[in-house]
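agent: user wants the structure for DUF2202 domain-containing protein from Lentzea rhizosphaerae. delegating to structure tool.
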Amino acid sequence: MTSPGALEAGRTVETADISLMRESLNGLTALDVQHVYGNLLTAPQHHLAAFDRLLRR
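agent: tool returned. relaying tokens verbatim.
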């Protein structure tokens, strides 16, 4: 069993990561770098969804 506090902490970290990556993505003009950031962004989005799913239980 996972502590709700730990899940909330994980959710907070992933939300911050998503925000930072989106902020970093703004203003980038190199398509290859945009593509890399887009790929990197999927991991914290998936992690956030998992934390949310576990918190709803």
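agent: one observation worth passing along. The chain has a mean pLDDT of 94.
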